[in-house]
Specification:
465 residues, alpha/beta, Aspartate Aminotransferase, domain 2, Aspartate Aminotransferase, domain 1, 3 domains, 4-stranded antiparallel beta sheet, 12 helices, 13 strands, 38% helix, binds pyridoxal-5'-phosphate
């Protein structure tokens, strides 16, 4: 009897609900005066997070939504390590350096063991560092020629918002070549119309955020080679390989694509470790073709951490775990492991595209071939569905699927598309369940027509920039 009472008391102590701490809404605007138990605080925060979407069904994000248990363990072990403390955590720094060399090698750097690169918090920071190096090199070139260097521009297609930020923050004219219906990537001909001697670089994207297609890096480089031969204009290229940097080297149909440091004009490349690099969110990479392509003036040496540490990141402190996890992924999977995963995802994307086309209502802007695993579709011309892709996205949410609908940038802003990104944990079986649910939604709308289709503004939950 005594024993039973004790155990009941013990269980009640561990039972979180009914306690004072979980009996009131959590503070929202002011830090509370008093502390609460760790358990109450945890339960409160944990339960609020249930309202987030289910990451496994998040087909909108490019970022990984599954990690191996060993990665979770390493992340836990590293949660207290600051990447910038390279003197204090020399082995974490060594793993970062190994990653840089492995990535440089993957991208066919002529001097992979010797070139410069760094981890970043994502592709945005990596892109800004790549862009800054281009700006500095261009300024030095103009100064050497005795020409003014106050009107820099850069030429891109429909870039991710990080490049718009870069251009605005550093006062560079962003010459974005607009999309046209049926021509969503930039072409070498168009690039030539936009460049001049104030162009600090051209940035093709290997994996457009809007459609998932690759831009034709090699053809653009060849056109710029010709321009240099004919007019003496030497314009460097930075490749935004946020997704493609970890896909093109592995996907069977893309292995022959020449897009990287095999092209001498490609001076720097960025990629997101946390996208198809398969690492957990919070890591990107930028690598320069040659040490000389990164101006020394951008590198700061600090001595207050002990040792003399070069740093050329925008942030000072940042987490070390993601970088350690990236190294783990590289040695755990090897090239064959990456190939298996990326090819499986690519196959699922192509299969999904075919199923969606077979429904009869949609046409593909991108059918999963030659770009990022996934697909992008729109209503076929002439289809009068009576509901919008925003309605379809909204209805799919009732089963937990997060499949964004959005309009394309100018000059294709009248085209509304829907896009799925296939990541490693979106298996063929899940794809088949999604297809069933899309069909179910279409059937639902046929039986229960919407009185007024949702607009982009009303849907409002997803927007690029
Ligand atoms: C082409 C491209 N560049 C840059 C970025 C920014 O990357 P991150 O989210 O790693 O900062 C993205 C993100 O989706 C992207 O698709």
């Amino acid at each position: 009897m005594l024993h039973l009472k004790k155990s009941i008391r013990y269980n009640l102590k561990d039972q979180p609900y009914g306690s004072e701490g979980t009996s009131a809404p959590l503070p929202k605007f002011k830090m509370p005066q008093e502390e609460m138990t760790a358990q109450d605080a945890y339960i409160g925060v944990h339960n609020e997070l249930v309202l987030d979407g289910n990451a496994s069904q998040n087909l909108a994000t490019f970022v990984q939504t599954w990690e191996e248990p060993q990665v979770h363990k390493l992340m836990d072990e590293c949660i207290i390590k600051n990447m910038i403390d390279k003197d204090e955590y020399p082995q974490t720094a060594a793993l970062e350096e190994r990653c840089v060399h492995m990535i440089a090698d993957l991208w066919n750097s002529p001097e992979a063991a010797n070139t410069l690169g760094t981890s970043t918090t994502g592709s945005s920071e990596a892109a800004m560092l790549g862009g800054l190096a281009m700006l500095w090199n261009w300024r030095a070139k103009m100064k050497a020629k005795g020409k003014p260097a106050d009107k820099p521009n850069m030429v891109t297609g429909a870039v991710q918002v990080c490049w718009e930020k870069f251009a605005r923050y550093w006062d560079i004219e962003l010459r974005q070549i607009p999309m046209e219906k049926n021509q969503y990537t930039i072409t070498p001909e168009k690039v030539l119309q936009y460049v001049d001697e104030n162009t600090i670089c051209v940035v093709p994207t290997l994996g457009l955020t809007f459609t998932l297609q690759y831009e034709p890096v090699e053809a653009i480089v060849k056109a710029l080679d010709k321009l240099q031969a004919e007019k003496g204009l030497d314009i460097p290229v930075h490749v935004d390989g946020a997704s493609g940097g970890f896909l093109a080297p592995f996907i069977e149909e893309q292995k022959n694509l020449v897009w990287d440091f095999r092209l001498p004009r490609v001076k720097s490349i960025n990629a997101s470790g946390h996208k198809f690099g398969l690492a957990p969110v919070g890591v990107g990479w930028v690598v320069w073709r040659d040490k000389a392509d990164l101006p020394e003036g951008l590198i700061f040496n600090v001595n207050y951490l002990g040792g003399n540490m070069p740093t050329f990141n925008l942030n000072f402190s940042r987490p070390g775990g993601q970088i350690v996890a990236q190294y783990y992924d590289f040695i755990r999977l090897g090239k064959n492991g990456y190939s298996k995963i990326q090819n499986a995802s690519s196959k699922t994307g192509r299969w999904l595209a075919k199923q969606i086309v077979d429904m009869g209502l949609f046409e593909m802007l991108y059918d999963g071939n030659g770009g990022i695993p996934g697909c992008t579709w729109r209503f076929k011309d002439g289809v009068k569905a009576g509901y919008s892709l925003y309605d379809l996205a909204d209805r799919l949410r009732s089963r937990g699927w997060l499949v964004p609908a959005y309009s394309l940038p100018s000059n294709a802003q009248d085209i509304v598309v829907q896009r799925v990104l296939v990541k490693q944990n979106f298996t063929m079986d899940m794809a088949s369940l999604l297809v069933d649910d899309i069909k179910r939604c279409i059937d639902y709308f046929d039986k229960h027509p919407v009185s007024k289709p949702l607009t982009e503004q009303e849907a409002g939950s997803f927007k690029h920039s």
